[in-house]
Amino acid sequence: MKDYHEESIVVVDDDQGILDSFDVMLGDDYALTMVDDGNKVLQLLHQRSPRLLFLDIKMPGMNGLEILKWIQDKKLATKVVIVTALPQDQYEEMAQQYGVYRYLRKPLDVDEVEDITRAVLH
Questions:
Q1: What would the pLDDT profile of 53-107 be if each residue is shown by its tens digit?
Q2: In this structure, which topology does domain 38-49+65-122 adopt according to CATH?
Q3: pTM over 0.85
Q4: What are the residues facing 34 on neighbouring strands?
Q5: How much is the pLDDT for 60?
Q6: Which of 51, 91, 99, 121 has the most crowded CB, counting CB atoms within 10 A?
Q7: Crossing angle (nearest 10°) for helices 38-47 and 64-74
Q8: Domain residue spans of the chain
Q9: Helical spans, DSSP H, in the chain
Q10: Among residues 69, 62, 42, which one has the least CA distance to residue 10?
Q11: pLDDT digits (tens, 9 = 90+) for 9-53
């Protein structure tokens, strides 16, 4: 049963395996847009504001923290969940300063991703 909030969830990661994982976790129930580059997601955000954005930190183009800061500066209503394998706590602290909704470390917990999605979209 699809929940057709057009562009309600955007997943940004340069690792195709992570994008595929989100498709498996959420694709049957939600409309997903997959983006593999920071600059591409910025172009998308100029056109529309998704309700939920799962965002990697390290990727080509703008990094995830730069995008998160841009979203905060523009005062978009998008909830941003950072998804990263980077172990440094400084990134989490920066994300908190930029208004991150949640901060998840890879590997992802399926139940946690589903719980976050339900909390934001329902």
A1: 999 999 988 999 999 999 999 999 999 999 999 888 999 999 999 999 999 999 9
A2: Rossmann fold (3.40.50)
A3: yes
A4: 11
A5: 86
A6: 91
A7: 20
A8: 38-49+65-122
A9: 16-26, 38-47, 64-74, 89-97, 110-121
A10: 42
A11: 999 999 999 999 999 999 999 999 999 999 999 999 999 889 999
What sign for the dihedral angle of Cα 119, 78, 73, 39?
A: positive
Q: How far is 59 from 22, CA to CA, in rounded Å?
A: 17
Could you check whether the bond before residue 60 is cis, i.e. omega within 30 degrees of 0?
no
24, two tokens: 């498996």
Six-digit token pair at 33? 């847009």
Q: In angstroms, rounded to a whole number, what is the distance separating the alpha carbons of residues 26 and 47?
A: 23
113 near 121, Cβ under 8 Å?
Answer: no
The three-state secondary structure class of 3 is strand
Residue 87 identity (one-letter amino acid): P
Cα angle for residues 22, 26, 28 (degrees, 5° grid): 125
